[in-house]
Amino acid sequence: MNNWFSRFLTKITKKQLIIAGIVAGVLLVAGVIAFAVIYHKRENLLTAALARIQSTMAERYQVDLAIDTAYFSGLSTVTFQGVTLTPQGREQLMKVRDMSVRVRLFPLLAGNIKFGQLRIYDTDLTLVKKDSISNYDFIFRKADSTAAEPEAKARPAVSLAQAANRMLNDVLYKIPKDMELRNFSFSYRDDSTHQYIRIPKADVDRGSLSSAVFLNDNSAAWQVTGTLNPDRRQLAIKVHANGKRIAIPLLERKFGLKLSFDTLETRLRDVFWTNNELLHFTGEWAVKNLTINHRRIAEEDIVFPDAHMDAELIVGNNHIELAKKTAVTVKKLTVHPYIRYTAAPNETYALGIETPEMEAQDLFDAFPKGLFTALEGIRVSGKIQYHLDAFLDTSNPDSVRFNSSMMQENFKVNAWGNANIPKINTTFVYTPYENEKPVRDIIVGPENPDFTPIGQISPYLKNAILTTEDPSFYSHNGFVEEAIRTSIATNYKARSFKRGGSTISMQLVKNVYLNRNKTMVRKLEEILIVWLMESTRAVSKDRMYEVYLNIIEWGRNVYGIGEAARYYFSKQPSQLTLGESIYLASIVPRPKTGLYAFTYYGGLKPYISSYFRYIGNIMARRGLAPADSTGSYGFYAVNVRESLRPDKPASADTLQLQMPQRNFDGELEEIRGLLDRIFGPGDPEAEPQ
To answer: Residue 517's closest CA among 297, 195, 293, 282?
Structure first.
């Protein structure tokens, strides 16, 4: 190295040395002059910057920022005293008694306040919400614009990536490498809740963070440690409670969500651009003994002993994406989720889930305790791999894409655990529930005189139920993707849950193996059990359908086709006619309303005749029923037994008594409603898939 430097010096001429010296001198003088200018103008620069901030806060967000005094107390240190932040017409949001900041001078020239060192003493931050009015809603409010309409239209669309980058810079600029925080208090108060957090001391020493957080008058103490390197866009923070659990009572009081954990770690690893268009955020999150409990999620606590997420978030001009390389790890299970939201030109949503090939047992071992109680104790062998791909274009919901597949290699169940799926191959006891309370025990097997083997049930009834509930039952593997796609499109267009995609397999599992609590976990558990039942062929299709027909509800305290045939028509299931079968199929979605379809003379009300024509035509086209040129398909031959008929009205039209009118004004909506309940909104002439 020295030899190289010596050779370099020998090549430099005296003239070159003189020129280099002159340039260095000029630069030095220029630097001194620039520093002098900045130094002498710093008060004016500070005043101008603060005035600009105060004006922006007042005009755009209607928030008053007041500062009693602000002055340079050192070469580049500014002291603020009596700082308050008050939304106009609302309670005070923040008050700071004394704050000292070392400001970087060169960013100040551009009007930015970038902190080098920060000292804050005696701060109160108070969030208040009364009824629907709060003192912090300006954070979520769009800034007021005074620009004329033509100017507003002329402005280019805002890039989400650029907006995210500016927001990140605004946050990172305010993170100092050295900080001393004393007596900071935060409180939240609304009509029903009051939470209080106190931080007596928090320090950042050369980027090293240490702090203690006390919740609700020392009812809990948290420790917050980490490293902060805002210049390199890197952060690492860990929250723990010295071996104790950390709970968040505000979530429980406000939303009924119980959430606690032992430790939580988060790391912002890198932020970078690609092609000056896509902004990438990479980071990690890890949690130990995360416990979640909410009545809509699961009945019991869900405990994740150890979970880790390595994620990449990508923000583009008009989209936000959780990248496919993101990995969520729980024990030996690794899942790669993918989520993408696009704002323009059409609003679209994409969702994907991918797992590498893995040992099947790793999937079940990864389920946290309390999540799927019916699957606890299950032991499997073989390999599996899962793939899900879904896409929704809100401008064309009917084009929704949904594909789900589970690859299996030598998959086998060695022990069933709590679910014991094969139990329905023999006699078992089924307990129906009403309002989450058991109704009665029903023996499903020959020991019950009302149990009807599938070979002794009218073919008309079996085919009518398949037509209305699950036409492809004997050919699908438990799920019908086309039905799920239709369900997604229908529910999105209605902005509510109007149609489900349940198959007979799913209805059977829901009734036999699961409780009646309507939770997210129960639906996932239902899907898993259906997959196990169908993929292992643990139960034949005929047996599944036989059990289904013998346990489903057909009316108030009427369960199974044996009870239903006797209750409505005083018949055996084998004696049911085409008309009686179509009627029984019509009441499966709402069994307790079944008797409303009958008149006082025992026949069916005219409005349901269109349903008979609709279902009958489908069955006839499929060769499941004889063609009927009248379109009645046994409608006029259906008569409920006399004891179930409604009372005769005070006055009756004798002509109507002899020959019921086939069409009534105003009953078209009833027909449509009935068809929508069963097949979902759509073309009434279209054949269901």
So the answer is: 297
**Cα gap 91→176, rounded to integer Å:** 29
Q: What angle do CA 263, 264, 265 make, to 5 degrees?
A: 125
Distance in angstroms (rounded) separating the CA atoms of residues 244 and 21: 65
Amino acid identity of residue 193, one-letter, is T
Task: Supply 87's token pair.
Answer: 């939304």
pLDDT (0 to 100) of residue 351 = 94
CA nearest to 336, candidates 413, 264, 399, 388:
388
DSSP secondary structure letters along 617-665: HHHHHTTSS---TTS-TTGGG----GGGSPPPPSS--HHHHHS--S--T
Model pLDDT, residue 412:
93
For residue range 11-28, list pLDDT tens digits in order. 666 555 555 555 554 455
Whole-angstrom distance, CA of residue 186 vs CA of residue 344? 39
Q: Encoding tokens for residue 595?
A: 């008797």
Assigned token pair, 685: 């002439």
Q: Phi and psi (nearest 5°) for 556?
A: -65, 110
- Residues 376 and 303: their CA atoms lie apart, in Å, by 14
If one counts every other C-beta atom within 10 angstroms of the C-beta of residue 15, the result is 8
DSSP lists the bridge partners of residue 226 as 209, 237
Residue the block writes with tokens 């047992």? 361
Amino acid, res. 507: Q
pLDDT given at position 311: 95
| CA atoms within 13 Å, Cβ hemisphere of 16 | 6
How far is the CA of 316 from the CAs of 233, 293, 311, 500, 520, in angstroms?
Answer: 19, 36, 16, 34, 32
Name the burial class of residue 206, with classes exposed (0-12), middle (13-18) and buried (19+) by CB atoms within 10 angstroms of its CB.
exposed
Task: Give the integer Cα–Cα distance in Å for 436 and 84.
Answer: 54
Asked if 310 and 327 count as a contact pair (C-beta separation under 8 A), the reply is yes
Burial environment of residue 541 by CB neighbours within 10 A (0 to 12, 13 to 18, 19 or more): middle
Cα–Cα dist 239/212, whole Å: 10
| Angle at alpha carbon of residue 513, lines to 510 and 516, rounded to 5° | 55
Cα gap 400→287, rounded to integer Å: 35
Q: What residues in the chain have per-residue pLDDT under 70? A: 1-42, 74-75, 103-115, 140-158, 217-219, 497-500, 516, 651-689
Rounded CA-CA distance 147/165 in Å is 24
DSSP SS3 for 562:
helix
Q: Alpha-carbon distance 576 to 581, whole Å?
A: 6
Structure tokens at 40: 């002498």
Quote the tokens at residue 511: 């009734």
Q: Whole-angstrom Cα distance, residue 232 to residue 103?
A: 18
Q: Which residue's structure tokens are 């440690």? A: 225
Sign of CA dihedral 105, 107, 109, 111: negative
**Residues 6 or more apart from 682 whose CB is under 8 A from it?**
486, 490
306 burial class (0-12, 13-18, 19+ CB within 10 angstroms)?
A: middle
